Amino acid sequence: MTADTALGLSELAADRALLGRTSTAERVAGVLRERIAQGLFRPGVRLSEERIGGALGVSRNTLRESFRLLTHERLLVHRLNKGTFVRVLTAADIVDIYRVRRLVECAAVRGLDAAPYRLTDVAAAVRYGEESAARGDWKGCSTANIRFHQALAGLAESDRTDDLMRGVLAELRLAFHVMDDPRRFHEPYLTRNREILNTLEAGDAATAERLGLTPLLRLVSFARDGVPARTMGLGPVGATRGALERAGLSLDDMDLIELNEAFAAQVLACTRALGLTEKDHEERVNVNGSGISLGHPVGATGARILATLAGEVRRREARYALETMCIGGGQGLAAVFERVTG
């Protein structure tokens, strides 16, 4: 039994009083749901009927019924002859959760009548997120994000919508508990949440709905470099190294690379200097073509490359991608992007 599980059991013993004499499977499920949301039972953990039933003081039959309720809510999963476990989300699960969340929230905002809107809960969630971030409390920041999305859906003033979002957001918590870098994930949303609130306070629901749409990529880092004019095509090499260093990543971390080129010799020189192989060319460098095959529009190459990159990152469900550009006179640019899943 892990330390987290032991802590969860000790916390459950204190919850026994919440059940009272009218203990029901629904109330037991409510207690477990809250403890899962708090991360006391992490994804993948097996839930012991004997230990949890003893901690809560309920029968095995009552506990099994509560497990069935939470399995129906997609928080638990039962494995034959192995037991009941806290669910581990797949990448497809997370994509679907965010898709549903966007549909509900954008519809709620789109359906608003004339301003002013009832934004007390939305504003409170935004403030709590900013205060949590200032303290370095990223778990609190994740709670604030959950509250923010619940409050946005609440603008529809529908009990059914509220119930739907509670279930969706409870599942989302499972993803938060296994995140490698909570700060990197949650921090960008603080600014977006504040923007949405300010826009709603100004009475502009249409713009708020657009802000609620999820971008495809997030800029992680960028860098510039310069080389002598006679070797102008090598500018992206130094820029790439700088962008990767700023991101704390390596070239091996890049799932896709879009290296701008007007001539094949230029991209070959850059990839050779960066140590990329023939296999890299086949699998992750300019996989949909490049300047020669797709076009080299004056003043619009950067946008063309980024659009190509964003589409391919989404299709592959990749994580990190690199875009580079060489510019006449010896300049080089490079930027690292990360796929946004929320």
TrEMBL record:
This is GntR family transcriptional regulator. It comes from the Bacteria. CDD domains: WHTH_GntR. The keyword ATP-binding does not apply. Gene3D superfamilies: 3.40.47.10, Winged helix-like DNA-binding domain superfamily/Winged helix DNA-binding domain. One of its GO terms (biological process) is fatty acid beta-oxidation. One of its GO terms (molecular function) is DNA binding. It holds the Pfam family FCD. PANTHER family: 3-KETOACYL-COA THIOLASE, PEROXISOMAL, 3-OXOADIPYL-COA_3-OXO-5,6-DEHYDROSUBERYL-COA THIOLASE. Keywords: DNA-binding, Transcription, Transcription regulation. Coiled coil: none annotated. Residues 22-89 form the HTH gntR-type domain. InterPro entries: GntR_C (IPR011711), TF_FadR/GntR_C (IPR008920), Thiolase-like (IPR016039), Thiolase-like_sf_Thiolase (IPR050215), Thiolase_C (IPR020617), Tscrpt_reg_HTH_GntR (IPR000524), WH-like_DNA-bd_sf (IPR036388), WH_DNA-bd_sf (IPR036390).
